[in-house]
Amino acid sequence: EIVLTQSPGTLSMSPGEAVTLSCGASQSVASGFLAWYQQKPGQAPRLLIYGASSRATGIPDRFSGSGSGTDFTLTISTLEPEDSAVYYCQQYGSSPFTFGGGTKVEIK
Amino acid sequence: EVQLLESGGDLVQPGGSLRLSCAASGFSFGGYAINWVRQAPGKGLQWVSSISGSGATTYYADSVRGRFTISRDNSRNTLYLQMNSLRAEDTAFYYCAKGSRGYSNFYIDSWGQGTLVTVSS
Q1: pLDDT tens digit sequence for B12-32
Q2: CA-nearest residue of chain A to B106?
Q3: Cβ-nearest to B47 among A93, A98, A102
Q4: Which runs of consecutive H residues, i.e. helices, occur in chain B?
Protein backbone atom coordinates (compact mmCIF):
# COMPACT_ATOMS: atom_id res chain seq x y z
CA GLU A 1 0.00 0.00 0.00
CA ILE A 2 1.26 3.47 -0.90
CA VAL A 3 1.06 5.80 2.10
CA LEU A 4 0.65 9.49 1.27
CA THR A 5 1.87 12.04 3.82
CA GLN A 6 0.71 15.62 3.45
CA SER A 7 2.43 18.60 5.00
CA PRO A 8 1.91 20.87 6.69
CA GLY A 9 -1.22 19.82 8.56
CA THR A 10 -2.50 23.37 8.73
CA LEU A 11 -1.44 26.54 6.96
CA SER A 12 -2.54 30.07 7.82
CA MET A 13 -1.82 32.60 5.10
CA SER A 14 -2.98 36.03 3.96
CA PRO A 15 -4.83 36.76 0.74
CA GLY A 16 -2.48 37.36 -2.15
CA GLU A 17 0.25 35.13 -0.78
CA ALA A 18 1.61 32.05 -2.55
CA VAL A 19 0.89 28.70 -0.90
CA THR A 20 2.72 25.41 -1.36
CA LEU A 21 1.27 22.12 -0.17
CA SER A 22 3.29 18.90 -0.18
CA CYS A 23 2.32 15.28 -0.68
CA GLY A 24 4.96 12.61 -0.15
CA ALA A 25 4.51 8.99 -1.17
CA SER A 26 6.04 5.94 0.54
CA GLN A 27 6.64 4.39 -2.90
CA SER A 28 6.86 5.82 -6.38
CA VAL A 29 3.45 6.71 -7.82
CA ALA A 30 3.18 5.09 -11.23
CA SER A 31 3.17 7.48 -14.18
CA GLY A 32 2.31 10.43 -11.98
CA PHE A 33 -1.18 9.09 -11.26
CA LEU A 34 -1.78 11.61 -8.51
CA ALA A 35 -4.78 13.89 -8.02
CA TRP A 36 -5.57 16.82 -5.74
CA TYR A 37 -9.01 17.62 -4.32
CA GLN A 38 -10.41 20.60 -2.45
CA GLN A 39 -13.08 20.20 0.22
CA LYS A 40 -14.91 23.08 1.87
CA PRO A 41 -16.91 22.62 5.08
CA GLY A 42 -20.21 20.84 4.53
CA GLN A 43 -19.42 20.12 0.89
CA ALA A 44 -18.27 17.15 -1.13
CA PRO A 45 -14.69 17.25 -2.41
CA ARG A 46 -13.93 18.79 -5.81
CA LEU A 47 -11.25 17.70 -8.28
CA LEU A 48 -8.51 20.28 -8.81
CA ILE A 49 -5.58 18.47 -10.45
CA TYR A 50 -5.08 15.06 -12.07
CA GLY A 51 -2.03 13.41 -13.58
CA ALA A 52 0.04 15.40 -11.06
CA SER A 53 -0.12 18.60 -13.12
CA SER A 54 -3.25 18.80 -15.28
CA ARG A 55 -5.93 21.22 -14.12
CA ALA A 56 -9.49 19.96 -14.07
CA THR A 57 -12.19 21.74 -16.04
CA GLY A 58 -13.15 25.10 -14.56
CA ILE A 59 -10.29 25.27 -12.06
CA PRO A 60 -8.65 28.71 -11.89
CA ASP A 61 -5.10 28.89 -13.20
CA ARG A 62 -3.81 30.04 -9.81
CA PHE A 63 -3.90 26.34 -8.91
CA SER A 64 -1.03 24.27 -10.26
CA GLY A 65 0.41 20.84 -9.55
CA SER A 66 3.88 19.43 -10.03
CA GLY A 67 6.05 16.51 -9.08
CA SER A 68 6.77 12.90 -9.90
CA GLY A 69 7.89 9.70 -8.24
CA THR A 70 7.42 10.23 -4.52
CA ASP A 71 7.21 14.01 -4.19
CA PHE A 72 4.28 16.12 -5.34
CA THR A 73 3.26 19.73 -4.80
CA LEU A 74 0.09 21.78 -5.10
CA THR A 75 0.68 25.51 -5.45
CA ILE A 76 -1.82 28.31 -5.14
CA SER A 77 -0.07 31.25 -6.74
CA THR A 78 -2.22 34.03 -5.26
CA LEU A 79 -4.41 32.98 -2.35
CA GLU A 80 -8.05 34.09 -2.49
CA PRO A 81 -10.46 34.09 0.48
CA GLU A 82 -12.55 31.38 -1.19
CA ASP A 83 -9.54 29.03 -1.18
CA SER A 84 -10.05 28.36 2.53
CA ALA A 85 -10.52 24.58 2.54
CA VAL A 86 -8.90 21.22 3.20
CA TYR A 87 -6.80 19.87 0.34
CA TYR A 88 -6.24 16.14 -0.23
CA CYS A 89 -3.92 14.24 -2.54
CA GLN A 90 -4.80 10.76 -3.83
CA GLN A 91 -2.80 8.25 -5.82
CA TYR A 92 -4.70 6.17 -8.37
CA GLY A 93 -1.81 4.22 -9.82
CA SER A 94 -2.21 1.10 -7.73
CA SER A 95 -4.86 -0.32 -5.46
CA PRO A 96 -5.56 0.57 -2.68
CA PHE A 97 -6.12 4.06 -4.09
CA THR A 98 -5.02 5.90 -0.98
CA PHE A 99 -5.61 9.49 0.12
CA GLY A 100 -3.30 11.69 2.11
CA GLY A 101 -4.40 13.01 5.48
CA GLY A 102 -5.12 16.49 4.16
CA THR A 103 -3.80 20.03 4.60
CA LYS A 104 -6.11 22.68 5.99
CA VAL A 105 -5.59 26.12 4.50
CA GLU A 106 -6.83 28.99 6.63
CA ILE A 107 -7.07 32.61 5.53
CA LYS A 108 -5.76 35.25 7.95
CA GLU B 1 -24.56 17.49 -15.86
CA VAL B 2 -23.26 14.56 -13.82
CA GLN B 3 -25.45 13.74 -10.84
CA LEU B 4 -24.80 11.11 -8.20
CA LEU B 5 -27.43 10.58 -5.54
CA GLU B 6 -26.60 8.29 -2.63
CA SER B 7 -29.21 6.70 -0.41
CA GLY B 8 -29.51 4.00 2.20
CA GLY B 9 -27.54 5.52 5.05
CA ASP B 10 -28.98 4.75 8.46
CA LEU B 11 -28.28 3.94 12.10
CA VAL B 12 -27.37 0.26 12.45
CA GLN B 13 -26.14 -1.87 15.32
CA PRO B 14 -22.63 -3.36 15.38
CA GLY B 15 -22.61 -6.60 13.43
CA GLY B 16 -25.53 -5.48 11.31
CA SER B 17 -25.87 -4.98 7.56
CA LEU B 18 -26.80 -2.13 5.28
CA ARG B 19 -26.97 -1.59 1.53
CA LEU B 20 -26.13 1.77 0.02
CA SER B 21 -27.27 2.81 -3.43
CA CYS B 22 -26.07 5.50 -5.81
CA ALA B 23 -28.32 6.62 -8.66
CA ALA B 24 -26.34 8.18 -11.49
CA SER B 25 -27.39 10.42 -14.34
CA GLY B 26 -25.91 12.82 -16.85
CA PHE B 27 -23.30 10.48 -18.33
CA SER B 28 -22.95 7.07 -19.95
CA PHE B 29 -22.94 5.09 -16.73
CA GLY B 30 -21.53 1.81 -18.01
CA GLY B 31 -18.53 3.54 -19.52
CA TYR B 32 -17.03 4.68 -16.22
CA ALA B 33 -15.63 3.18 -13.08
CA ILE B 34 -17.36 4.25 -9.87
CA ASN B 35 -15.96 4.52 -6.37
CA TRP B 36 -17.08 4.61 -2.77
CA VAL B 37 -15.11 6.99 -0.56
CA ARG B 38 -15.95 7.56 3.10
CA GLN B 39 -15.27 10.27 5.62
CA ALA B 40 -15.75 9.88 9.35
CA PRO B 41 -17.16 13.06 10.93
CA GLY B 42 -14.36 15.61 11.26
CA LYS B 43 -11.80 13.29 9.67
CA GLY B 44 -10.11 12.86 6.29
CA LEU B 45 -11.11 11.00 3.16
CA GLN B 46 -10.72 7.22 2.99
CA TRP B 47 -11.04 5.26 -0.25
CA VAL B 48 -13.28 2.22 0.27
CA SER B 49 -13.93 0.42 -3.00
CA SER B 50 -14.08 0.81 -6.78
CA ILE B 51 -15.68 -1.08 -9.66
CA SER B 52 -14.87 -0.95 -13.35
CA GLY B 53 -17.42 0.22 -15.88
CA SER B 54 -18.33 -3.30 -16.94
CA GLY B 55 -18.43 -4.52 -13.34
CA ALA B 56 -15.85 -7.20 -14.12
CA THR B 57 -13.15 -5.76 -11.85
CA THR B 58 -13.52 -4.70 -8.25
CA TYR B 59 -11.11 -3.20 -5.76
CA TYR B 60 -11.35 -2.98 -1.96
CA ALA B 61 -9.52 -1.38 0.93
CA ASP B 62 -8.10 -3.95 3.33
CA SER B 63 -10.31 -2.59 6.11
CA VAL B 64 -13.51 -3.63 4.30
CA ARG B 65 -12.44 -6.59 2.15
CA GLY B 66 -14.56 -9.62 2.98
CA ARG B 67 -17.26 -7.50 4.65
CA PHE B 68 -18.29 -5.07 1.89
CA THR B 69 -19.32 -5.91 -1.67
CA ILE B 70 -19.49 -3.35 -4.47
CA SER B 71 -21.72 -4.01 -7.47
CA ARG B 72 -23.50 -2.14 -10.22
CA ASP B 73 -26.55 -2.49 -12.43
CA ASN B 74 -25.75 -0.72 -15.67
CA SER B 75 -29.33 -1.17 -16.90
CA ARG B 76 -30.54 0.90 -13.93
CA ASN B 77 -27.58 3.33 -13.79
CA THR B 78 -27.14 2.36 -10.16
CA LEU B 79 -24.18 1.49 -7.94
CA TYR B 80 -24.47 -0.49 -4.73
CA LEU B 81 -22.41 -1.15 -1.62
CA GLN B 82 -23.49 -4.10 0.49
CA MET B 83 -22.01 -3.67 3.96
CA ASN B 84 -22.01 -6.62 6.37
CA SER B 85 -20.52 -7.17 9.83
CA LEU B 86 -20.53 -3.44 10.43
CA ARG B 87 -18.26 -1.97 13.07
CA ALA B 88 -18.23 1.32 14.95
CA GLU B 89 -15.24 2.41 12.86
CA ASP B 90 -17.36 2.16 9.70
CA THR B 91 -19.34 5.20 10.89
CA ALA B 92 -18.91 7.84 8.19
CA PHE B 93 -20.38 9.75 5.33
CA TYR B 94 -20.18 7.53 2.25
CA TYR B 95 -19.63 9.29 -1.05
CA CYS B 96 -20.33 7.84 -4.46
CA ALA B 97 -17.71 9.18 -6.86
CA LYS B 98 -17.41 8.84 -10.64
CA GLY B 99 -14.12 7.72 -12.14
CA SER B 100 -12.52 9.42 -15.11
CA ARG B 101 -12.53 6.28 -17.28
CA GLY B 102 -13.92 2.79 -17.40
CA TYR B 103 -11.05 0.79 -16.00
CA SER B 104 -7.60 1.15 -14.39
CA ASN B 105 -5.89 4.34 -13.33
CA PHE B 106 -9.02 6.44 -12.95
CA TYR B 107 -9.12 9.55 -10.84
CA ILE B 108 -12.37 10.88 -9.36
CA ASP B 109 -13.92 13.68 -11.40
CA SER B 110 -17.37 13.98 -9.80
CA TRP B 111 -18.75 13.38 -6.31
CA GLY B 112 -22.17 12.86 -4.80
CA GLN B 113 -23.25 14.62 -1.63
CA GLY B 114 -22.88 11.55 0.59
CA THR B 115 -25.06 9.46 2.87
CA LEU B 116 -24.42 8.98 6.58
CA VAL B 117 -23.91 5.54 8.05
CA THR B 118 -23.85 5.35 11.83
CA VAL B 119 -22.88 2.10 13.55
CA SER B 120 -23.85 2.20 17.20
CA SER B 121 -25.79 0.25 19.78
Answers
A1: 999 999 999 999 999 999 999
A2: A92
A3: A98
A4: none
